[in-house]
């Protein structure tokens, strides 16, 4: 029986391995992690991550051919294929600080693999990493190999959170990079056989190691660039009276451009986009390509601009001050259908409003108070370390309360900011909400989920990203 072990039971490792176990009942899959609470949660009824459809897949295979364990060394030793899906934070100190990936966790995983292995193994890079990481890992493994043969593959994951299970069931493509040697080719074929159980062969792309690594960074950079492009347009739409939804629709009808990923928003978030672009920027700089580096940097700059523009809209609309005012924050996760808050635009928007002394009442259907408080107190880039290495529960931000209901969040509020596009925010009873708010009552829709006209009829002053401005906002400055 082929044995697979995955180091790192996070948003990538957990769902990916659960689907491999479901599709390959004859393969034994062990997901291991150094975090005891995380593994306990994977073994309980409340999984550590919220992902539609995941519970069902885990329940079907757990205890049969899917195991979650903290016994990292034992499972690595027994495995034929070892996936590595550990944290790769952005460095905060030293060479490349603020840009380069910190490969500490990857390196320690590689050294451990070399240490405990007694048989040949295929080691698969699954975390997003800078180009040429595989080469570095290969060096660590071969220099410590004690005669064991390690083949390194890069098999980047393209799943998006909230749709992870569907993305894994029907991926647009699976990418496997490896060495262009007979042993490398053989390893690629071994991994290909696993995916070929459910992915059509023509969708499994094989390439060299560096192409695979760079393709992942490039794909995320292109996606993020689309959002920054439409968000840049949203500012121009507000200035000129055009409607960004109509512009996106018209632009997306061009089959060369396509309709997906053109929703203007308060900004993109998530664990990948910013980190991957920073990585790309760093690689370009290291390779003497400052023009290319600056081109990609601009994608992040527009994203930051969009978040501060939003905060400025809120503050300037409310008589240039939110000091002491209650602002309801609806949605904190970086997108709907996930409880993940990594790099969520809500963090910067909330910090911006707190900087202007607002009182915040936050509601998100999937994010709890501890997480929100931790996020608001955390330093940039600290989020991407294993939980036991993150700063202990910081002192709670006093001006923030977290509630479990949109009506409680909005009671007596002066304004509402919608920061995640949860479906339930579309069908709230906005008349009821209006009646219990301070007047004038404001809605700032950072995801274009509400029907602005209907809300205006109720009496709200409404700001929607990239839409023609309410008369109230027309003469107010919102330049970031
Ligand atoms: C992304 C990539 O899509 C995925 O392929 C990769 O493996 C990991 O990074 P993820 O971060 O989970 O996935 O979510 P995604 O759906 O890409 O959304 C990222 C951010 O962009 C979210 O904050 C989302 O709200 C925002 N977004 C997305 C927009 O603002 N507008 C859009 O049109 C689409
Ligand atoms: P991703 O979104 O890429 O899946 P996560 O941060 O959710 O990333 O998961 C990474 C996981 O890797 C964490 O649960 C962390 O505890 C685990 N991890 C980090 N280093 C090691 C290691 N050396 N051995 C085992 N697990 C590790």
UniProtKB/TrEMBL annotation:
<dbReference type="InterPro" id="IPR036220">
    <property type="entry name" value="UDP-Glc/GDP-Man_DH_C_sf"/>
</dbReference>
<dbReference type="GO" id="GO:0005634">
    <property type="term" value="C:nucleus"/>
</dbReference>
<keyword id="KW-0520">NAD</keyword>
<protein>
    <recommendedName>
        <fullName>UDP-glucose 6-dehydrogenase</fullName>
        <ecNumber>1.1.1.22</ecNumber>
    </recommendedName>
</protein>
<dbReference type="GO" id="GO:0006024">
    <property type="term" value="P:glycosaminoglycan biosynthetic process"/>
</dbReference>
<dbReference type="InterPro" id="IPR014026">
    <property type="entry name" value="UDP-Glc/GDP-Man_DH_dimer"/>
</dbReference>
<dbReference type="GO" id="GO:0051287">
    <property type="term" value="F:NAD binding"/>
</dbReference>
<feature type="binding site">
    <location>
        <begin position="8"/>
        <end position="13"/>
    </location>
    <ligand>
        <name>NAD(+)</name>
    </ligand>
</feature>
<dbReference type="Pfam" id="PF03720">
    <property type="entry name" value="UDPG_MGDP_dh_C"/>
</dbReference>
<feature type="binding site">
    <location>
        <position position="161"/>
    </location>
    <ligand>
        <name>NAD(+)</name>
    </ligand>
</feature>
<feature type="binding site">
    <location>
        <begin position="86"/>
        <end position="90"/>
    </location>
    <ligand>
        <name>NAD(+)</name>
    </ligand>
</feature>
<feature type="binding site">
    <location>
        <position position="342"/>
    </location>
    <ligand>
        <name>NAD(+)</name>
    </ligand>
</feature>
<dbReference type="InterPro" id="IPR014027">
    <property type="entry name" value="UDP-Glc/GDP-Man_DH_C"/>
</dbReference>
<dbReference type="InterPro" id="IPR008927">
    <property type="entry name" value="6-PGluconate_DH-like_C_sf"/>
</dbReference>
<feature type="binding site">
    <location>
        <begin position="272"/>
        <end position="275"/>
    </location>
    <ligand>
        <name>NAD(+)</name>
    </ligand>
</feature>
<feature type="active site" description="Nucleophile">
    <location>
        <position position="272"/>
    </location>
</feature>
<dbReference type="Pfam" id="PF00984">
    <property type="entry name" value="UDPG_MGDP_dh"/>
</dbReference>
<dbReference type="GO" id="GO:0006065">
    <property type="term" value="P:UDP-glucuronate biosynthetic process"/>
</dbReference>
<dbReference type="Pfam" id="PF03721">
    <property type="entry name" value="UDPG_MGDP_dh_N"/>
</dbReference>
<feature type="binding site">
    <location>
        <begin position="127"/>
        <end position="128"/>
    </location>
    <ligand>
        <name>NAD(+)</name>
    </ligand>
</feature>
<dbReference type="GO" id="GO:0003979">
    <property type="term" value="F:UDP-glucose 6-dehydrogenase activity"/>
</dbReference>
<feature type="domain" description="UDP-glucose/GDP-mannose dehydrogenase C-terminal">
    <location>
        <begin position="328"/>
        <end position="452"/>
    </location>
</feature>
<comment type="similarity">
    <text>Belongs to the UDP-glucose/GDP-mannose dehydrogenase family.</text>
</comment>
<keyword id="KW-0560">Oxidoreductase</keyword>
<dbReference type="InterPro" id="IPR036291">
    <property type="entry name" value="NAD(P)-bd_dom_sf"/>
</dbReference>
<dbReference type="InterPro" id="IPR028356">
    <property type="entry name" value="UDPglc_DH_euk"/>
</dbReference>
<feature type="binding site">
    <location>
        <position position="33"/>
    </location>
    <ligand>
        <name>NAD(+)</name>
    </ligand>
</feature>
<comment type="pathway">
    <text>Nucleotide-sugar biosynthesis; UDP-alpha-D-glucuronate biosynthesis; UDP-alpha-D-glucuronate from UDP-alpha-D-glucose: step 1/1.</text>
</comment>
<dbReference type="InterPro" id="IPR017476">
    <property type="entry name" value="UDP-Glc/GDP-Man"/>
</dbReference>
<dbReference type="InterPro" id="IPR001732">
    <property type="entry name" value="UDP-Glc/GDP-Man_DH_N"/>
</dbReference>
<feature type="binding site">
    <location>
        <position position="38"/>
    </location>
    <ligand>
        <name>NAD(+)</name>
    </ligand>
</feature>
